Amino acid sequence: MDENLKARARALCAADIAAVRPLLRDRKAAVERYWPVVAAEITGNLIVPDALAVPRDLANLQEEYRRLRNG
Q1: Per-residue pLDDT for the chain (71 aa), expressed as one digit of tens each?
Q2: Which range of residues forms the domain containing residue 63?
Q3: What's the domain count of the chain?
Q4: In this structure, how many other beta carbons lie within 10 angstroms of the beta carbon of residue 33?
Q5: Are 63 and 34 in contact (CB under 8 A)?
Q6: Is there a contact between 13 and 35 (Cβ–Cβ < 8 Å)?
Q7: How do the residues of the chain divide into helix, strand and coil, expressed in percent and rounded to 5?
Q8: Residue in 4, 62, 2, 15 with CA at minimum distance from that of residue 36
Q9: Cα–Cα distance between 18 and 1 in angstroms, integer?
Q10: How far apart are alpha carbons 68 and 4 in whole angstroms?
């Protein structure tokens, strides 16, 4: 796994969540759940082999994350 991509995705995800849901009780769990979505956004949905473990339910996670960010 590309640790740099993972770290950037986690940081951006945490910033997104903090900006739109500052009172979210378990922000750390949300970042753990949604960072693969942000990683996919960073790479333009191009998943490089061995760079990222892609969750089987990525499409569902993308929709959940979109709803989370949009309030």
Answers
A1: 588 989 999 999 999 999 999 998 999 999 999 999 999 899 887 765 555 667 888 899 999 999 999 87
A2: 3-70
A3: 1
A4: 16
A5: no
A6: yes
A7: 65, 0, 35
A8: 62
A9: 26
A10: 25
| Cα–Cα distance, 39 to 43 (Å, whole number) | 6
Alpha-carbon span 38 to 33, nearest angstrom: 10
Q: What is the pLDDT of residue 50?
A: 58
- pLDDT value for 71: 74
d(CA 8, CA 28): 15
- Alpha-carbon span 4 to 30, nearest angstrom: 20
Name the pTM for this structure.
0.83
First to last CA, the chain: 31
